[in-house]
From TrEMBL:
InterPro entries on file: DSBA-like_thioredoxin_dom (IPR001853), Thioredoxin-like_sf (IPR036249)
Domain annotation DSBA-like thioredoxin: ranges: 3-199
Record has Isomerase as a keyword: yes
Species the sequence originates in: uncultured Thermomicrobiales bacterium
Keywords: Isomerase
Protein name: 2-hydroxychromene-2-carboxylate isomerase/DsbA-like thioredoxin domain
SUPFAM superfamilies: Thioredoxin-like
Amino acid sequence: MIVDVYHDIVCPWCRIGKAHLDLALAGWEGEPVEVRWRPFLLNPEAPTAGGDLATYFRETKGVADPAPIFRRVEAAGASARLHFDFARARVGPTQDAHRLLLLVAPERRATVLDALHRVYFEEGGDLADHALLTDAAAEAGEDRATILARLASDEGEAELAEALRASQATVRGGVPFFVFDETYALSGAQPPETLRAAMRETVAARAGVGA
């Protein structure tokens, strides 16, 4: 089974959705599952040097007090054993971070994504910083010098642009957006049991029987 996950790295619900998917897969006893991470941009025009998230919500989303929003995410994250420090997270572009995920070995992408989530949501890291991106890749086993050189080039830019066009045409209802075997879809940071149910339904539908 193939599970395509459309996500943006600065989307906290996408981070929670990944944690839920990890738990769903840990409890899955069916056929092998391949997870493919598909890029999506929540804010394509994000400034290179952005301000803090609270200011961003007030100035661009019209949210006078974003604290309740942050608390809701923090509570959901805590249930998935994730920590969020919204006071440190900054607004910024994610194109190069998504490009990095295309450049690293497929079997290392989930690990690199976890590292990117950690440095952004917990450490206030700048996802446009090639040194930071390289550190995340090297932490997962990629060669540091090679990744830094590839990021400095335009490698992966055309592939990323095409993937982003496809995600805009595919995603309905926001991210994270899960697509099972290119047929059955779920939107939002669904709990592990819901994701496993979708996987069972996908297998059953392919076999032509009830879930």
